[in-house]
Amino acid sequence: MRVTSKIYLKLENLQPSGSFKSRGIGNLMRSSFSFDIDSVNNGSRHFYSSSGGNAGLGCVHAAVALDSPATIVIPTSTTEYMKSKLRNAGALEVIQHGKSWAEADGYLRENLLPEARVRGEQAVYVPPFDAQEIWDGHATLVHEIAEQLTEEEDEEGQDCQTDGHRTAVLDALVCSVGGGGLLCGIMQGLEDVNLQAARVLAMETYGADSLSQALKAGHLVTLPAITSIATSLGARTVCRKAFEYGQKTTVKSVVLTDKEAVHACQRFADDERLLVEPACGVCVAVCYDGRLERLLPDLQEDSKVVIVICGGSNVSLEILEKWANDYK
């Protein structure tokens, strides 16, 4: 990491499913039960999720924990590697349909869910990003960051009193944006812990930049197709709540190339011995080649910046090597 500020990594790649999706999707699925212990243990729900891969893994891991089946619908752009991960994680069925997540999601909601309910199933739809319960789950990420930073400040003997209450110091936070669920949870979480003044860099790649395009147009837009290698960011339309958050003065939309994201994946693997996919690499990229200083020029040496390592399971050494060769 070649930056002058204090950089902290929130390692969401260590979540059970390999990404932050475990937080929000797990929270939504748990909330679908009545919180009666018998209903949780009897496996009476059948969860259905549409996903480019990572949300599906979040759904499958949570379903296994809840002793319930999960069916995942993925677009044809999803790799065989990710398909095998979904099956190995315990998915009851993995179905490929459509060229994009939107088409896969439409097939799930318009065909599979009605058919399941006709069969008498307690079929529960698990959206990948656009639901309050998902944002609530993702907000816990920021709650933890605030707690961890406060503990560090206590150890360093720093005074962070604000109206008699302890408040962590956070200058900036960097996160990826696909459909916008993570951004919504982060913004909500920052408000929860009184850190809403922190700047947020909302990172996308060209070809998967539905938030950036919407902000430029002044209204939600639908991309004609996802052309970025960062298919995990492949929501052609960002959710409305994320669009609203994106208009706040504390949020800066940033779009990088696939090449920049892939190179960051390589350098991050060398520097930190962690493998991430380009959807996460686009966040890590701000730490290289002076990007962070250019994007937030007022940061100081003691400024605190958190990079959300959102994770993603669609990566291996072999896959990273192929990306590196493709984007020399």
Question: Keyphrases for this structure?
Answer:
single chain; 328 residues; alpha/beta
Question: What this model shows, in words?
Answer:
The structure is a single chain. The protein is of the alpha/beta class and 328 residues long. It is 44% helix and 16% strand. It has 13 helices and 11 strands. The protein has helices spanning 21-31, 37-41, 54-65, 80-89, 101-118, 132-156, 181-192, 210-217, 240-246, 258-272, 278-284, 291-295, 317-326; strands spanning 6-11, 45-50, 70-74, 93-96, 122-126, 161-162, 165-166, 172-176, 199-205, 251-256, 304-309. A 5-stranded parallel beta sheet has the order 1-11-8-9-10, with helices on both faces. Helix 10 packs across helix 11 (278-284). It is globular, with a radius of gyration of 20 Å. The chain starts with 5 loop residues before the first strand and ends with a helix. The model has no long low-confidence stretch (mean pLDDT 88).
